[in-house]
Structure formats: structure tokens, C-alpha cells
């Protein structure tokens, strides 16, 4: 029993470190295959405006688009100082001038204030070599939402040129950590995926961990250690009101929503056994999913279609990754490598599982196919933990902590290319990436 509790403690410790389009049929694509990550040079012109205000807004929109595209690692926005032509109309584009600076794609747009006080943002994307328009869109919205419009434009450009859906108009919820002397204050925080529009959601009176957004972005499930008792809470995003999901007999942790948002899967531990449980959020009825006493089952996560669950279990002697169907509930081990596995998360597109591995004192972020084959490590460090997927299944965000205890969020492409720090005001741990915002 003592050995089981020690194993449970080690797993828990690792968990805590944790809007018409007119597309033309052109064949230009950025190569997104593994091992050939050559960013596509793209010229993003400042969007022009019909007033000083809209002109400035157009420049801001273009800047956000450029930053989004560059951060993906798939595109290389060209510095505006290299532009030969500045603000051409569609009929006046001198494509030879853009080819001369090696631009393969050209994005231009306009921002106009409408009669009702809103703004209309139009953009066109061109293939410089075929001299054809690839897509054209228009968005009408309030001026306060200009950053979202910029992210939406970047998503459209990304999708047209890469063939994959974008992920820029999304949110990140995470735990913000501030150290005051020897005291740490952890608070829930939410921001845009690029670090903008940052908001604190909790008061810091209790330790909070592993926040997860519901599929419709209306709820957050998280672990709260109020009065040193770990319980799962729900926060309604529109009001920031919290409610406890119930008092469980042992330690509860690692909540995640089902793909339809109607259920919550979690673990709780009691007397050396940690099992998986499923709660219906409407009835609050709880069902035990794994039945084997004396083992530790943790970190459950649904497949995108809700038909399977991936989790970690020590039923084979050490923490390994298991998968079971939601109908038969028969676990089967899929991980086969050396070391200990933690925190598996199913890709939104269903093809991969990301995980944390500890081996010979080093932590790794890795991916494998859903049958456990083709396991590969994509980054490593003193402490890397809490992976979460972008909604297109292309990018992984995770926590990286150095030997001094400083923790930051990082992103990396599934090929192991283009690792970047995510800007946050303070230290950041245990993030979760939202779906695309409706």
C-alpha cells in the first residue's frame, strides 16, 4: 500500500508541473511535411483606411496577421522596408516587383467605417507567381474586435496556403503563478493565443490547477485546493461564478470535458487506489469507469469522437498509456517504450496522442499514433509537462520549467520544429487551448 501511495504521489507531482470566400484553384501550398519546414515568404501590406483612425487600425491588423503567420513557423513575412510597391489597387499590382523580393504570396486589405459606426475589413490574397487571387473575404464588426478580425484573416490565409485549418482565433486558459518571497500565488488566467487580452479569473486565495475549457467555451473545470482540500470546481465564464461539483471521498484531480461538453471525466484517489469516474453535468450522477482496486488510473482524456478514452495506469507495474472504449471499458496498453508516461492528450484531429515521458531523469514531450506506434520525442528538458493541442492538431503548447523553478508556456510544431515562448505577464503553468471561437 505504501508503494502505491508513493506512486500516486509521483504521478500527482508530475501532473501539477503541468465568418464569402472566393477561392481560385491555384496549387500553391506551403510544405507542412515533417523534415521540410521551409517557411513561405509572404508580403503582408498594411491595410489601408478611409480615415486616419481606420488607417491606423489597418496597420495594427496587418501587424497582428504577420505575427500570427510568423509564429506558426510556416510563413516568413517580408520586412516592409524591402517593398518596391507600397499600396497598389488590385488592377495595379506589379507582380514582378513582388517576385523580385521573393514574395510567393501577397496579402492586402482595406478598413472602412460603415454608416452605422462599425468597421468593414476586406482582404485579398494573391499568388505572386500565377498572378491570381486565391481568396477574398470581408468582415463587418465593431472596432473593439479588430484583433479578432486580424486573427480570423490570419486563419483564412493559413488555411488557404497550408491546407490545414487555422488556430489563431482561440483562447488559452492557464494558471498564472507569482512568487512573493517563499510564497506562491496561483490564479486562473485567460488570454488570446498570442498573449493579448490577458485577464485574471480567480483571486489567488487557493491553489488552482489544470483548468479546462468546455467545448462551447462557457465553462471552466479546474482543481481547487481551498482549505487544502482538492476538489473540482466549475466556473461559468460569462459571470465568473464558481460552484463545487461535489465532495468526493478522496483526492480529485485532472478533470476534462467530453467532446459534447455534457460530461466530465476525472480521477480520484482513495486508500491507494485511483480510478476514473464520469460525471453527467446535468444530473450530477457519477459512474466509476475503471474497477481494478489497488492500481492508479489517472489523466483521462476522450478521443475527439468520444468513443475512446486514453489514460495513464500503473496496472502493469509502472505508469504507461492505456486506451479503452467508452462502451466496453476494456483497457489495453499502447505505450511500449522505456521510462514512465504521463499526461496523454488526444489530438483534435484524432491521429496522434501527445504525452510526457520521464526517462533517466529527463522529461520529454512526445507523440505517438493512437495504437502506440511511431513514438517520437519532439522536445525535452529539466521539466516539461502539461501538453495541450491547438484546435487543428498541428501545434502543441506545454509548460517548461528550468532548474531555478521558473516556468513558462512554450509552443512547438508536431515535427519538433519552431519552439517558441508564449508571452505571459508572470510565470505560467498547466495551460489548455480552446477550440476556435465561434
TrEMBL record:
InterPro entries: 6-blade_b-propeller_TolB-like, Tol-Pal_TolB, TolB_N, WD40. Its main location: periplasm. Part of the Tol-Pal system, which plays a role in outer membrane invagination during cell division and is important for maintaining outer membrane integrity. The lineage of its organism: Bacteria, Pseudomonadati, Pseudomonadota, Alphaproteobacteria, Holosporales. Residues 29-134 form the TolB N-terminal domain. This is Tol-Pal system protein TolB. Keywords: Cell cycle, Cell division, Periplasm, Signal. GO terms for cellular component: periplasmic space. GO terms for biological process: cell division; protein import. The keyword Cell membrane does not apply. The Tol-Pal system is composed of five core proteins: the inner membrane proteins TolA, TolQ and TolR, the periplasmic protein TolB and the outer membrane protein Pal. They form a network linking the inner and outer membranes and the peptidoglycan layer. It comes from the Bacteria. Belongs to the TolB family. It holds the Pfam family PD40. PANTHER family: PROTEIN TOLB, PROTEIN TOLB HOMOLOG. It is found in: Periplasm. The gene is tolB.
Amino acid at each position: 500500500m505504501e508503494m502505491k501511495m508513493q506512486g500516486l504521489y509521483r504521478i500527482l507531482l508530475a501532473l501539477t508541473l503541468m465568418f464569402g470566400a472566393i477561392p481560385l484553384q491555384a496549387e500553391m501550398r506551403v510544405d507542412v511535411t515533417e523534415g521540410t519546414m521551409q517557411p513561405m515568404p509572404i508580403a503582408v501590406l498594411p491595410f489601408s483606411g478611409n480615415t486616419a483612425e481606420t488607417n491606423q487600425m489597418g496597420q495594427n491588423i496587418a501587424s497582428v496577421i504577420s505575427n500570427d503567420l510568423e509564429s506558426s513557423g510556416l510563413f516568413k513575412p517580408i520586412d516592409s522596408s524591402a517593398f518596391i510597391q507600397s499600396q497598389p489597387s488590385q488592377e495595379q499590382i506589379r507582380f514582378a516587383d513582388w517576385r523580385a523580393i521573393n514574395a510567393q504570396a501577397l496579402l492586402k486589405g482595406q478598413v472602412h467605417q460603415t454608416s452605422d459606426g462599425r468597421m468593414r475589413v476586406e482582404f485579398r490574397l494573391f499568388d505572386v507567381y500565377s498572378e491570381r487571387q486565391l481568396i477574398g473575404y470581408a468582415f463587418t464588426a465593431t472596432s473593439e474586435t479588430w484583433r479578432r478580425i486580424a486573427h480570423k484573416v490570419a486563419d483564412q490565409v493559413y488555411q488557404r496556403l497550408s491546407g490545414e485549418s487555422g488556430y489563431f482565433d482561440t483562447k488559452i486558459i492557464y494558471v498564472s503563478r507569482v512568487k512573493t518571497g517563499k510564497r506562491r500565488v496561483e490564479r486562473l488566467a485567460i488570454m488570446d493565443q498570442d498573449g493579448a487580452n490577458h485577464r485574471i479569473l480567480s483571486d489567488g486565495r487557493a491553489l488552482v490547477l489544470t483548468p479546462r475549457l468546455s467545448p462551447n467555451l462557457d465553462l471552466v473545470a479546474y482543481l481547487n485546493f481551498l482549505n487544502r482540500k482538492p476538489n473540482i470546481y466549475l466556473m461559468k465564464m460569462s459571470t465568473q461564478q464558481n460552484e463545487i461539483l461535489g465532495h468526493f471521498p478522496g483526492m480529485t484531480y485532472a478533470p476534462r470535458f467530453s467532446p459534447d461538453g455534457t460530461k466530465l471525466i476525472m480521477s480520484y484517489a482513495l486508500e491507494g487506489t485511483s480510478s476514473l469516474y464520469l460525471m453527467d453535468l446535468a444530473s450530477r450522477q457519477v459512474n466509476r469507469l475503471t474497477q481494478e482496486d489497488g492500481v492508479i488510473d489517472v489523466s483521462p482524456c476522450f478521443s475527439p469522437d468520444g468513443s475512446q478514452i486514453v489514460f495513464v495506469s500503473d496496472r502493469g507495474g509502472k505508469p504507461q498509456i492505456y486506451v479503452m472504449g467508452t462502451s466496453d471499458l476494456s483497457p489495453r496498453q499502447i505505450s511500449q517504450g522505456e521510462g514512465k508516461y504521463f499526461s496523454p492528450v488526444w489530438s483534435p484531429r484524432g491521429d496522434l496522442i501527445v504525452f510526457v515521458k520521464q526517462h533517466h531523469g529527463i522529461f520529454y514531450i512526445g507523440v505517438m499514433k493512437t495504437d502506440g506506434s511511431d513514438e517520437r520525442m519532439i522536445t525535452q528538458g529539466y521539466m516539461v509537462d502539461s501538453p495541450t493541442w491547438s484546435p487543428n492538431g498541428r501545434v502543441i503548447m506545454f509548460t517548461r520549467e528550468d532548474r531555478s523553478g521558473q516556468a513558462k508556456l512554450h509552443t512547438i510544431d508536431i515535427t519538433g520544429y519552431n519552439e517558441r515562448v508564449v508571452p505571459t505577464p508572470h510565470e505560467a503553468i498547466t495551460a489548455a487551448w480552446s477550440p476556435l471561437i465561434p
